[in-house]
Every structure is written in structure tokens, then in C-alpha cells.
Amino acid sequence: MNLNIDIQEREHIQHVSLSGEIDAYTAPKLKESILPLTQSSEAEVVVDLQSVTYMDSTGLGVFISALKSTKEYGSQLTLINPQERVYRLFKITGLTEIINIDTDSTVRGGL
């Protein structure tokens, strides 16, 4: 399966809607799309994971890279609406402690 990436800017916030699978095949495309969004001071990037049906460790690596980029450039990253199995991957790796993940779809109006 492929990964669909839809990026829209609303109210100075980059909204990224993902659907499909994030794995070794699709992660490079995701990284190419997300990292530039984080490389602007004061940028806010909200990634909606609601339609992500599968993610492996390469997907986690993309989000860790994006988080490092936000620290370097002074931007913000928020992940919203992960499905339970995707959220569990962040949880068991301890990434819920360092990446802002909101399971409430009302974050900034959701997507």
C-alpha cells in the first residue's frame, strides 16, 4: 500500500493529513514532505495520523528527525488522532514522552 500525503496551510499552521502505511518504502517520501515544513522559525506542523493503518520503526525515525528539526529551528510538531496500534508503537518506545501526541481530534479543529 502507498502513503498519501496532503499538506494544507490554514491560519499559519501546516496541516499534514496522512493515509496509508508508513514503512521502509514510504518513509523517505514522508520525510521529504515533513522536514522542510519544520525548518522555519515559529512554524507549527500538525500531522493527522487518523488514516495511517500501519507504521514501523522507519516511520518512527521520520518523526524523530522531524522533532530534532523543530528543536533546531524553533518550530513545533504535533501528531494527532493516531489509531490505537500506531499510538501503541509510540508508547512502547517511550516517544510519547518527547513528541506531542494528542489523541483528541479537536486539536486546532482537527482535519
UniProtKB/TrEMBL annotation:
Taxonomy, superkingdom: Bacteria
Gene3D superfamilies from the UniProt entry: STAS domain
PROSITE patterns recorded: STAS
Limits of the STAS domain: 3-111
Keywords noted in UniProt: Phosphoprotein
InterPro entries: Anti-sigma_ant, STAS_dom, STAS_dom_sf
UniProt family annotation: Belongs to the anti-sigma-factor antagonist family.
Function description: Positive regulator of sigma-B activity. Non-phosphorylated RsbV binds to RsbW, preventing its association with sigma-B. When phosphorylated, releases RsbW, which is then free to complex with and inactivate sigma-B.
Stated name of the protein: Anti-sigma factor antagonist
